[in-house]
Amino acid sequence: MQGNKIKLLRTTTVPMSLNVLLKGQFRFFNDNGFEVTCVSSKSPELFAVGFREGVNVKAINMTRKISPFLDFISFLRMFRLILEIRPDIVHSHTPKAGIVSMLAAKLAGVPVRLHTVAGLPLMESNGGIRLLLKVVEFVTYLCCTKVLPNSFGLQDFIIKEGLVARDKTKVLGNGSSNGIDTEFYSISSISSVTIGLIKDNLGICESDFVFVFVGRLVKDKGINELVDAFLIVRKSINSCAMNNLKLLLVGPFEKELDPLSEQTLRRIKENNSIILTGYVSDVRPYFAISDCLVFPSYREGFPNVVLQAGAMGLPAIVSDINGCNEIITDGLNGFVISPKDVNALVLAMKRMSFEYKLKIELGLTARSMVKERYEQNVLWSLQKAEYINNLMSTKRN
Fold first, then answer.
1. 254 close to 218: Cβ distance less than 8 angstroms
2. What is the DSSP string of 57-119?
3. Position 236 pLDDT exceeds 90
4. Cα–Cα distance, 293 to 306 (Å, whole number)
5. Helices 95-107 and 127-143: crossing angle, nearest 10°?
6. Of 351, 357, 308, 360, which is closest to residue 333 (Cα–Cα)?
7. Using alpha carbons only, what angle is made at residue 22 by residues 17 and 24, rounded to the nearest 5 degrees?
8. Per-residue confidence band for 294, with pLDDT thresholds at 50, 70 and 90
């Protein structure tokens, strides 16, 4: 601790996690008694985070793939950086940054070592890969002083799997890694001019009913099932002489790690009712032109996208998985369906597009529930208290 400032090191595997998933958090802590340093792989995005948040940044390359040699190099660089900075707290996010920085922090004698669990690849893995991923998580948690699952479902999962004892875990508030700024994510924050321009640019008419997905366009997010379901629903609506259904896919493909099926890629390319935007830095206008979020993911920690859509007044159709089923209550602010179930997705999408009054009611409830349970400044205050309590505990011991 330097003066009255608590030295805090925050780590993620790739800078996008710092830039998007944890946006605003570092400036808050830097302005409230902490000296913050953010560490992630080298990229212009990392330095943009430092500039925007007013914090120090350090580049240590980490790969998301399993690579023992490169991972060992990352560990050595992290260990050296920690010895140089001498932080009071190291707080990691994402699996690779977790194992690298928690192990380095423990060996370097950092008193408070926290890791946020926000989704686990092992949930959708099998055989030897699953065992390896499980060992990595176990070692990560072993090196922590506290494990912070960002949902109650994840907390139950890692305890059930024997990865950590319950008394070593804590879910902050009602869950989430960053909460949601409901003033920023509100329909009133987007002008009618912007909405009109984006609709014109994407070829969306006033009469169109728009389903939107926001996130990585990969298998684990349920995109194969979503495209199948959308085409079935659209065909049934066309038979009723209604031709106004659109599917808006907002996000990048990841062909190397978790590619979509060739059939899905072909259907996306060939159907002009499926609209691709690629990665966008501000998702709010795309929520503003949409009617319903569809998020049929196989696994999540606590999805920011569902919070963002709810804050923008959108109902959501989500998979019955941890995180999603904690934000969405079936029939209250959206629909909860079985994962990987195309038929259930079809029924939910049909109901959402046909029952207009229900859709409006679900959307209004969605925003009020997000405001009540997941306001960002409340979560940040809880996290600050957790940091201080953990530091005080180490001093007492």
1. yes
2. EEE----SS--HHHHHHHHHHHHHHHHHH--SEEEEESHHHHHHHHHHHHHTT-SEEEEEE--
3. no
4. 8
5. 40
6. 360
7. 135
8. very high
Give the pLDDT band (50/70/90) at residue 240: low
User: Domains in the chain, ordered, with CATH?
Assistant: 6-179+376-396 (3.40.50.2000), 187-373 (3.40.50.2000)
DSSP 3-state assignment of 298?
coil
pLDDT digits 0-9 by tens, 160-218: 999 999 999 999 999 999 999 999 999 999 999 999 999 999 999 988 999 999 999 99
Half-sphere exposure of 366 (CA within 13 A, CB side): 32
pLDDT in tens, 21-67: 899 999 999 999 999 999 999 999 999 999 999 999 999 999 988 88
Cβ contact 64:40 at 8 Å: no
> Letter for the amino acid at 72?
F
Q: Closest by alpha carbon to 73, among 39, 47, 100?
A: 100
**CB of 247 closer than 8 Å to CB of 275:** yes
Let me know: does 337 contact 296? Beta carbons within 8 Å. Answer: yes
In the numeric block, the tokens 């099998």 are attached to 126
The type of residue at 48 is A
Q: Which residue has the tokens 């990691």?
A: 92
Helix axes 356-373, 342-354, angle to 10 degrees: 100
